[in-house]
C-alpha cells in the first residue's frame, strides 16, 4: 500500500470509529481469572516499588479464584493518588478488598471512603494514618528507621517538585534485605520515585475507622520502625495482626505466601 492509500485508510478508520458503538464503553473493570463469588483484590504499591512487587501475591490469589488488580500508584501526592485509586476501584463491579503497601496505606485509607463495595482493608508494612498525619511524621514517631540515610540526592522536576529514590547500592539492605540479591538489584533499578511533597502531605482519610482492617509486617522492617507498625495496627483495632519474624519492608515479595493468606482472611471476613 502506498503512502496516499495508507493515509486514506487511516482517515476512514478514524471516521468509522466515531460512528460505531463501543462494545466496552461504560463497562465495569473486571479482573481476569476471577469468579463472581469472591471479592476483587486491589493491590496498591508504595514508594520505591511498582506493581510487579505484587506478582507473587497476585499469583497465589489468582490460583485461588480471586479477581486481582494491581494499581499503578502515581506516587505524586496523597490526595491525588487516592483520587486516582478511588476512580479505578469505582469502576470495578462487586465487593472489594483494598491492600496497601507502605505509602500505599495512606492511599487506600482515603480511596476506600464513600465506596460501599469496599469490605476490608489490608495494610502490608503500611501506614494507617489518622487525619492530618504524614508519612514523614509516622515514620519518625518511633526510633529505628534508616531510610533517610539511604536516599539519593533528590531529582528536581520541571514544576519545581523533587523526586526521591533509594541509592541503588543501598537498596537491598534498606528495602529488601530478605530478597535474593539478583531480584533485589532488579527492584532497585526499576524503583518508582515518590515526591518529597507526598511524604509530607497530611492524610485526609482514615477508612480503617469504619472498615475491618488487617495488618501484616516484618520485624526487620527498616523503613517503618517495628514499634510504629505495632502502634498503627493497635490503634486501628485490627481484626488480625501478623508479625513475620525477620521479614523486610517488602514482605509481599519475600513472604508472598503469608501476605496472600492474610488477604484471603480479609476477603473471607474471618
TrEMBL record:
Coiled coil feature spans: none
Leader sequence residues: 1-25
Transmembrane segments: none
Record's protein name: AB hydrolase-1 domain-containing protein
UniProt KW keywords: Signal
Taxonomic source organism: Collimonas arenae
Gene3D superfamilies associated with the record: alpha/beta hydrolase (3.40.50.1820)
Domain named AB hydrolase-1: residues: 41-261
